[in-house]
Amino acid sequence: MLVWTEQFATGSALIDTQHRMLIDKINLLEKLLAEPAPSRAVCDELLSFLGSYVATHFKFEEGCMLKARCPAHDKNKQAHAAFLDLFAKFKVKYQAEGAKPELLRNLHAVAADWIKSHILAVDIQLKACAK
Ligand SMILES: [Fe+2]
Question: From the CA of 61, how far away is ligand 1's center (Å)?
Fold first, then answer.
């Protein structure tokens, strides 16, 4: 389970709230995976929410970095594009193969690892630039 701590703080309360929401949803996926037979409808809903929330959050965060002239802006944009690409590939597989536990476990592992290292390596650089 991921836990948001002060080390994830970006200097923007809104971005931090969005990160907390993303962490909650990734943790929810972990909880679903622990169930003996997670419902397809619940998985569909969670994944579609995660997909659209991530896209909205990335756009918002990139806008904040651009406005603050944060030197991490380009790196952030590239990392976001790479994650969206990965998520799109996952969605194709999910639609073709269904809610296979192995597929969902893999998404959870990748997403949990990615968000943690991305926030710590890139997003928190906003702190030095945000007023
Ligand atoms: Fe980011």
Answer: 6
